[in-house]
Amino acid sequence: MPHKSVNFIEMSPACGAFIEDLDLSKGLTNQQFDEIYNAVVDRVVLVFRNQTITPEQHIAFARRFGKLQAAAASGFEKNKDYPEIDNLDYDAEHPPHVTRDLWHTDFAGRERPTWGTVIFAREIPPKGGDTIWVNSVAAYEGLSDRMKVYIEGLWAYHDSYKPYGEHVRPEMWVDQGKSLGKLNSERSNYRPALHPVVRTHPDTGKKGLFVNESMTSLIKDIDRRESEYLLRYLFDHLRTPEFQYRHKWQTNDLAIWDNRTSLHYALFDYTDHRLMHRVVIEGEIPHAGTASPVI
């Protein structure tokens, strides 16, 4: 990875890099930002160690990458003083219902999935709570040539409410009817997003798989059973360890990842408190590099 002013330490061959000698509280030069941006695109996820930043600095850093997602777009608990920040605040008594046990790409069920995510580790349990990222470009390149030909030009529906389904989260449907009443009302006005199965990265032109088990529900224009079999295969393929980087968090880690070429899995194997502050960057309509489908 070419660089001049920032030192990157690559982690797994597929993705991931550490930056240990940069203090984000002091701001970034244009050259430093350009190198960091290119590194996020290249390595998918970057982790800055030992950061002591304020919420304002967290927000300002994320904003350099693009417009921030509107606070109302997220159903997560908000920081009362900073509505741009989601509080991911979990322990044994308050588990992460929506994303637990599911590989996912943030906000893939929207017409414009997010560009990326900037998350700051405020409090980390003594053990557990790792996050695993997958490089979806590496996953695509790992497919056979025949499979690449078959999935080229396919489009799939992504349902933001799939993770809330009774068959996925049955515990949420027990004694919680009132809280789910609003959810059902919102879903009645919602239309799943249609995205290419093979997404072309706007900066690099590289192709990556753009499906995830949390939200991708159906491939358009093929038999439902064929869709289920194909998605099951692609979900399993994306979990291949060689495409992954697994991060063991430390307090004051700050991570940023490219949502356009990744999916991730947050382990819920802890009982102690885990608090992460998340800021989300708006994205664009996914591009296939081929003609758009007729909806």
Number of domains: 1
Q: Taking Cα atoms only, what radius of gyration do you get, to the nearest Å?
A: 19 Å
Binned, the helix content reads 10-25%
Strand content: 15-25%
- Pairing-aware structural class of the strands and helices? alpha+beta
Count of strand segments: 15
Biggest sheet architecture:
7 strands, mixed
CATH class: Alpha Beta
Spatial strand arrangement across the major sheet: 1-2-3-13-5-15-4
Number of helices: 6
Rounded to the nearest angstrom, the distance between the terminal CA atoms is 41 Å
Element-by-element helix/strand order: EEHEHEEEHHEHEEEEHEEEE
Overall mean pLDDT stands at 89
The 3D shape can be described as globular
CATH architecture verdict? 4-Layer Sandwich
The CATH topology is what? Answer: Double-stranded beta-helix
Uncertain segments are none
CATH superfamily: Clavaminate synthase-like
Please specify the SSE layout and strand pairing:
Blueprint (H helix, E strand, L loop, with lengths): L8 E2 L6 E3 L10 H14 L1 E4 L6 H9 L22 E5 L25 E8 L7 E5 H6 L3 H7 L3 E4 L18 H12 L4 E4 L1 E3 L6 E3 L6 E4 L4 H15 L5 E4 L6 E5 L3 E5 L7 E8 L14
Parallel strand pairs: 2-3
Antiparallel strand pairs: 1-2, 3-13, 4-15, 5-13, 5-15, 6-12, 6-14, 7-8, 7-11, 9-10
Write a structural description:
The chain is α+β, with helices and mostly antiparallel strands and 295 residues long. Helices cover 21% and strands 23% of the residues. The chain has helices at 30-43, 55-63, 136-141, 145-151, 177-188, 224-238, and strands spanning 9-10, 17-19, 45-48, 86-90, 116-123, 131-135, 155-158, 193-196, 198-200, 207-209, 216-219, 244-247, 254-258, 262-266, 274-281. The strands form four sheets. A seven-stranded mixed β-sheet has the order 1-2-3-13-5-15-4. The longest helix is centred in the last third of the chain and has 15 residues, at 224-238. The N and C termini lie far apart (41 Å).
